[in-house]
Amino acid sequence: MIAALFTGIAAAPWMRAALRYGAIALAVFLFLLSLRRSGRAGRLAERLETSEKFNDIQRQMLDAAARRPS
Question: Is pLDDT at 55 greater than 90 in this prediction?
Fold first, then answer.
């Protein structure tokens, strides 16, 4: 039943064109969504790296202060 329905849909030339354009639009949408997510992940990775650098510098300062005579 369902296979016959899909066969009938795919047999009409205008429906094949509509399916083709729909598939292209879906592919573009998913591509743009993945770019957006990768940009967000890149910003998070950059923020983590900056935080790690700051923590390393702060740790070095605390170590130097601990070694300093009173």
Answer: yes
